Amino acid sequence: MGDRNKKPGQALDRLFANERETGEFRFDTSVARVFPDMIRRSVPGYTTIIPMIEVITEQYARPGSYCYDLGCSLGASTLAMRHGIGDRDCTLTGVDNSAAMIERCEHYIALDDHPLPVSLRCEDILDTPIENASVTTLNFTLQFVAPDRRAELMGRIASATLPGGVLILSEKIRFESDTEQSTQTQLHHEFKRANGYSDLEISQKRSALEQVLIPETLAEHRERLINAGFSQVMVWYQCFNFVSMLAIKSH
Prior knowledge:
Rossmann fold, 251 residues, 8 helices, seven-stranded mixed β-sheet, disordered N terminus, alpha/beta
């Protein structure tokens, strides 16, 4: 069918186009180079979620607070947060453990015409100090954190979040019903085919990601967030097996 939405001048994701020995998926230089095309063609709703992060940040960012984009990759959600903060006196920090991603992120941050400084840190988000936060974003990041470390991370974020502050959590999820899981997975694969990916590309990328991307059910996410200290957890966006949640800490 071909990609209906290919943008001129954008590096095309062909990393899994040829048969290869599939290893663990890594956010290396080759992925960073094609990442904007990869995520747009792989994650349904990504181009909706990013501008809505700006809207949510505009609503919840508080002067004098810290805002974090944990797992910032090339900075799409960081830039959305930057514009949502506007002229408020906030400290904005983007964190990613991939040096290749941070290097390209610095480039995009520099190109963005906005006066708010952005601090970028190349480190594991599990090691990032978090304090006095009004808005924190994990945009398809938690799914790459080891499952036995996720509660610890959510607890640290919740403890550091100011009353009335929020966490924006976007994730690929799995479903408790095998039938729904099968249907939603098939629809996701059709989305990829509609965007020009071949069956070989879909299969090989899925095999690579299965080793590092561990999805959970919506119920598991809700329970963890409530246990961490957030008072409300709501889904504000879903398309197939991809969701974005808003976790709010009570005043």
